Amino acid sequence: MNKITEVVKIFFAYLVRPHLYPELGRKIIKNTFQRGSATKGKETAEKWCKERSISQEEAIQSITGNLNYPKLNENYSEILQNAQKIEENTPVKMGGAGALDLIYNLCEFTQAQNALETGVAYGWSSLAALLSLAKRNGTLYSSDMPYLGKDNDVYVGCVVPENLRKNWKLFRFADRESLPKIFKEQSEFDFVHYDSDKSYNGRMWAYNVLWDKVKSGGVFMSDDIADNAAFMDYCLQNKREPIIVEFDGKYAGLILKS
Length: 258
Prior knowledge:
By secondary structure, the chain is α/β, with parallel strands linked by helices. It is about 45% helix and about 15% strand. Helix 4 runs parallel beside helix 7 (about 100-110).
């Protein structure tokens, strides 16, 4: 598919989804006037992350104090194997699994009753969070917008098994529309995971909104923080002390709220 065909397909994908019109307007502005937002400060951010990063294992042990923390591939091997088969048979390719042990153990550490994530794709991070939340009959609130042009709507969250879906509320809008709807239902969260709009401006808007909703004793997490300088700048500007986690050549940032 050439670039022009892809743009046309995405545009028409927006047109048949009126609930996404506000995001279409923002995309037009972003692609016209903010084209450098996706990679703003990328080199500086990569260096900053690399100098501070620790492994997923070190992060979990440091935060939880548990040297023998639970690992999903040991405790939930059958569920993960079934999820992997579902992904392999899905015709649309989306994002990878990510640091699942980290997400699960952060939910366990906070004894999360309410968690929030932005960005779902196959639902790997959703699955990790729900495996913890379901123990306490907690709820995961997820904001996700389809990969427009790829017709992936029906596959969003496909790896999440049916028995966990009673603890899951999925809002199918862009974050700026989803989050106000979520906040009407729940105003505080023990764990928040950001993995949606990766632009600098999109992150800076979301970080400020989401941090206010993290409960005292809770954890905020953002994926792919070396893509641009947003997470670094947010931490420096607000005097936050983050934990930087390297996983599969990428970096995630954690902030514990005292």
